[in-house]
Amino acid sequence: MSDEIFKVFILEDMPVDLELVKRQVRKFNPSVLFAVARHRAEFQEKVVVFQPDIVLSDYNLPDMNGLEALVHVREHLDSTPFVFITGILNDEEKVAEAILNGASGYLLKENLRNLPELLETVVQQNQQAMAQRENEWERRRNNQIKLRKSIAMLRQINFPGSDEIALTLQEVADELG
């Protein structure tokens, strides 16, 4: 991992578990900045403002569950990785539900020593996904530029139907964004 500050948001209500998670994150990257929430209001108040590189969340909290936190992150910080670190996600249905709702992974607290490796995997996967999105955006942008140039050239040429073709291409360009 680079020397850049790694911003980690932790949603955990148990102080001992919080410190154990922090210790393992520092093994992954010692240049870490933490933000912590213990309940819903604190989480919703802080997470978007903090703009974390990753969110680590317990599943059961006093006034919410981890899936609610995951949905909130997906709504406000779509590409931010979200990992459950919990003692109760050993239920296959809950694991499947978490993954289907956009979790990047999960780790049982009893396996906390594996957190640095999981973080490495999740961060790499997120970087690859972001690079793919960037490439796709650039490809679409280039196609749109080519389309607009073609429309401009068509408008300069005067042949029967050129206006209709230019109008149709303009509609396509508008739909592409």
- Low-pLDDT parts are none
Strand content: 15-25%
Helix and strand pattern = EHEHEEEHEHEHH
Helix content, binned percent: 55-70%
What is the β-strand count? Answer: 7
Could you characterize what this model shows?
58% of the residues lie in helices and 16% in strands. With 177 residues, it is α/β, with parallel strands linked by helices. It is built from 6 helices and 7 strands. It is elongated and about 75 Å long. The strands form 2 sheets. It has a 5-stranded parallel sheet, with helices on both faces. A hairpin with a 2-residue loop joins β4 and β5 (64-65).
How do you describe this structure in short?
With 177 residues, the chain is of the alpha/beta class. It has helices spanning 15-28, 40-50, 66-76, 92-100, 115-156, 162-176; strands spanning 6-11, 32-37, 54-57, 60-61, 64-65, 82-86, 105-108.
Q: Which helices and strands, and how do they pair?
A:
Blueprint: E1 6-11, H1 15-28, E2 32-37, H2 40-50, E3 54-57, E4 60-61, E5 64-65, H3 66-76, E6 82-86, H4 92-100, E7 105-108, H5 115-156, H6 162-176
Parallel strand pairs: 1-2, 1-3, 3-6, 6-7
Antiparallel strand pairs: 4-5
Key features?
6 helices; two-stranded antiparallel ribbon; 177 residues; 5-stranded parallel β-sheet; alpha/beta
